[in-house]
Design brief:
This protein is an alpha/beta fold and 284 residues long. The protein has one domain: Rossmann fold (3-Layer(aba) Sandwich), CATH 3.40.50. The protein contains ten helices and nine strands. Helix 3 packs across helix 5 and helix 7 runs antiparallel to helix 8.
C-alpha cells in the first residue's frame, strides 16, 4: 500500500489531542517495539510554557536528581526494511509559536525524505467502554481520501497542533491522514485507555501497510474494560448511563445508521472542547 509512501511519519502529542493518553501511548508502543534513533528535537525554550507544562524531577539508579524538560522529538527507525517504515514524532503540544514549530518539524521531515504523515489523536466522546473503539479516519488530501476510502471533515473551529502540522505538510507536498479514537468521556481523564491505543494502532496498520506490533495491549485492553465494569457495577446511575450509551452506539452500528455518525461525534467533541482546555492546554 503505497498511497502514503514507504517513509511515513506518525505524529502524536500529549495534551489537548490525547484523551485517555491513547495517542501518546500508541507512539510509545511504536518506539518500544523497535530500535529508534533521535534525529531532531525542538528547543523547549522556544515553544513551551513551563508554568503549564512543567519540567519533571526524577532520581536515577544512583540516586542523582535529574530534570527532564518538555520536548518534541522526531525519531527514525534504526533498522532498514523492505516495507513501509514508520518515523515517530512525539512529545508535548507546544504552548506558543505554532507556525515556527510546524516549520521546524516539516523541515526535519523533508530532510528525512518523509513521503506521508499520519496524525493520531484521541478525543473524549459519548461512547460506551463495552463496544469497539471507533476511530475516525480522515484526510484533506483528495487522492488519499479516494485511495484509502477516508472521510473529509467539514468541522470549523478551534484545533490542536496536529491540524497545524497536517496543513503545513500538505503545503509542501507531503500527503496526510488523521486518525482520532473516541474514548469514553467518563474514564478518559482518569486512566490510560489501552483499548483506544490498540484501535489506533490497528487503523494505522490498515492505512499504511506497515507491520505494527501490539505488545501486551490486547490483554491490557481486556483488563481495562473489566476494571470499569467492576466500578460501574456498584453504581446504578453509572450502569444505566452506560446502557444508554450502548443503545445509542448499537443504533449507530445498525445497517440503517448514517455513515457520518462518527464524523459528527468528532465535530461535537471539538466544539465541546472550545473553552474547556485539557490538562496540558495553555488556556487552562
Amino acid at each position: 500500500m503505497d498511497t502514503l509512501g514507504r517513509r511515513v511519519l506518525v505524529a502524536a502529542f500529549d495534551g489537548w489531542n490525547d484523551a485517555g493518553e491513547a495517542a501518546s501511548a500508541a507512539a510509545a508502543q511504536l518506539r518500544s517495539t523497535d530500535r529508534y534513533e533521535r534525529v531532531f528535537a525542538v528547543d523547549p525554550e522556544l515553544y513551551f510554557d513551563y508554568q503549564y507544562t512543567r519540567p519533571q524531577l526524577t532520581l536515577d539508579a544512583d540516586g542523582r536528581r535529574t530534570l527532564t524538560w518538555p520536548d518534541a522529538t522526531l525519531w527514525r527507525p534504526a533498522r532498514a526494511s523492505r516495507g513501509t517504515r514508520l518515523w515517530v514524532l512525539s512529545g508535548v503540544e507546544p504552548a506558543r509559536s505554532w507556525q515556527a514549530f510546524a516549520a521546524e518539524v516539516i523541515d526535519a521531515a523533508l530532510s528525512e525524505d518523509i513521503t506521508g504523515l499520519v496524525a493520531i489523536g484521541s478525543m473524549m466522546s459519548d461512547v460506551p467502554h463495552t463496544r469497539p473503539i471507533s476511530v475516525h479516519a480522515g484526510s484533506d488530501n483528495e487522492g488519499i481520501r479516494t485511495a484509502l476510502d477516508l472521510e473529509r471533515s467539514t468541522y470549523e473551529g478551534p484545533v490542536g497542533i496536529l491540524s497545524v502540522l497536517t496543513a503545513a505538510a500538505e503545503e509542501v507536498g507531503i500527503p496526510t491522514a488523521s486518525l482520532w479514537a473516541s474514548v469514553p468521556h467518563y474514564v478518559a481523564g482518569h486512566t490510560p485507555s489501552p483499548k483506544a491505543t490498540l484501535a489506533l494502532l490497528d487503523r494505522l496498520e490498515d492505512i499504511t501497510g506497515a507491520e505494527v506490533p501490539r505488545g501486551d495491549l490486547a490483554g491490557e485492553a481486556v483488563a481495562w474494560e473489566a476494571s470499569i465494569d467492576a466500578a460501574a457495577a456498584d453504581d446504578e446511575e453509572m450502569t444505566e448511563y452506560i446502557h444508554q450509551l450502548e443503545r445509542t452506539r448499537d443504533a449507530w452500528d445498525s445497517p440503517e445508521a448514517s455513515g457520518d455518525a462518527i464524523a459528527q461525534e468528532f465535530e461535537r467533541y471539538l466544539r465541546r472542547r472550545d473553552g474547556k482546555p485539557g490538562r496540558d492546554d495553555p488556556r487552562r
